[in-house]
Design goal:
It is elongated and about 80 Å long. The termini are far apart. Strands 4, 5, 7, 10, 11, 14, 17, 20, 21, 24, 27 and 30 form a 12-stranded parallel beta sheet that branches. The protein has a 10-stranded mixed beta sheet with strand order 6-8-12-15-18-22-25-28-31-32, with no helix packed on it. By secondary structure, the chain is mainly β. It has helices at about 65-75, 310, and strands at about 10-15, 20-25, 30-35, 40-45, 85-90, 100, 110-115, 125-130, 135, 140-145, 145-150, 150-155, 165-170, 170-180, 180-185, 190, 195-200, 205, 215-220, 230, 230-235, 235-240, 245, 255-260, 260-265, 265-270, 285, 290, 305, 315, 315-320, 325. The mean pLDDT is about 85. It has 3 domains: about 1-35, no CATH class; about 35-80, no CATH class; about 95-325. Helix content is about 5%, strand content about 40%. It contains 2 helices and 32 strands.
Length: about 325
Amino acid sequence: MGRNITASKRGFGYDPVTRSLGVYVDGALAASFPPTPGRTYFVNNITGASTNDGLSWANAMDQPSTAITAGVAYQATHATNNEYIRNTIVMQGTATAYEALTSLAGYTDYVGIGADPTGNGGGIARIDGAGAKDSVDTGSSTVRGVNFYNLQFTHTSTPGTTYYCFDIAGAMYRSRFEHCGFTNGGAACFHAKSMGSIIIDDCHCMQDQFNALYGALIGSTSASTGNFNNCWIKNSNFHGNTAGFLNYNNSCSNTLLENCTFMGGTNGFVDLDNDANGAAHYLHIVNCYGFGTDSTSINAGGFEITNHYTLKALGCMGNDNGTLHNYPTITD
């Protein structure tokens, strides 16, 4: 049971700000046991308010952007080189989507509490661009150490528009997405100009009301613009009007795509790596399925890998406009 800390003489006292249990002797704090050095901010866009501290559900904040501002300020109170204190932002799923984000707090866990994020409708913890902006747009900033769990990023725009559900226009490193949904979108559901050491697990880029041109777009739309190194994408589905997954970047060292499905109107999975950096920088695709209608020839529909598809793909199956091909091909 929590006690009034200032009046505690002996025994235990709970500090709701640091969420720590303290041991008091003659009114003085003798020991403190916080769950983590960071803070947890609770967000509910129905019951919360921008003026609340967000340190409990009873005093929840209104938007994740409010919690991001508070979390960044708290991290800044720590000594230089110790500002990597990890915070958590917990968002309750309601009947209303959360407002779009134009920045993220690094070294922070973003957790959705609610219905499955691959569905549609109320109860999902979802962030919505609302037709006029990306649901999350990190701008030119480099973001590090952000983890997302059980969240939906949605954007109700028609295919071909410039909007994304989640847009990493700068770079993102050492982060993960687990059990998240990226729905609708215009240019792509998920876009990253450059990223490294990213884990994407049990995530879905998909159609709800509209379908983006690309489920996932790595790099720009014309040339290699960044890295795609040390990433692990697994157990996920990517669906787009043109391609399920499109990679432009040439440096893909140690990146693995495993147990994924790529579905596209023209191609399932497209890798446009021009081989400029050599074999050490190839990505690898293992036990994946790609569907596309561009051609019935191997490596032209379900998968279109510009260079060395027999070296990059293993145990994969491509559906090339109704004709099935194994990757790599096996000859006696």
